[in-house]
Amino acid sequence: MMYLNRIFDQTLTDYLEAFGAVLTTTAEQQANSVLKMQKPDEQEANTSTAQTKPSILLHGETPRLIDEWQVVPQLWDAVRNEVDERQEVGLCRGSQVPHCYTIPNLGPSTCYP
User: Fold this and answer.
1) Are 45 and 39 in contact (CB under 8 A)?
2) Cys-Cys crosslink for 89: which of 22, 58, 63, 104, Cβ 3.0 to 4.6 Å?
3) How far is Cα 113 from Cα 102, in angstroms, rounded to an integer?
4) What is the pTM of this model?
5) Bigger pLDDT: 1 or 12?
6) How many whole angstroms separate alpha carbon 71 and alpha carbon 83?
């Protein structure tokens, strides 16, 4: 399937250059590698790794997309740290909302019914 450019593509590229990591829902087309946290065969291992040594999950060609990162909020700080150290870009995307979660440096704990 051929990718059709979107108006937001240039904005996303500009944000990646300026900030290093971006929260987005259209990132897969910009990513050079993808980690899907929700893949059924890998979900348990990915979650465990993210909780104990999240930097392992960040290995891959950049920009690296971490899909459904919010299921293990520790990944956000790992991505920010990796962006700072490597001076390369990272992408985070998510559509799932855990029942209760805290995203460090993004605000207070949030709970949904």
Assistant:
1) no
2) 63
3) 15
4) 0.63
5) 12
6) 20
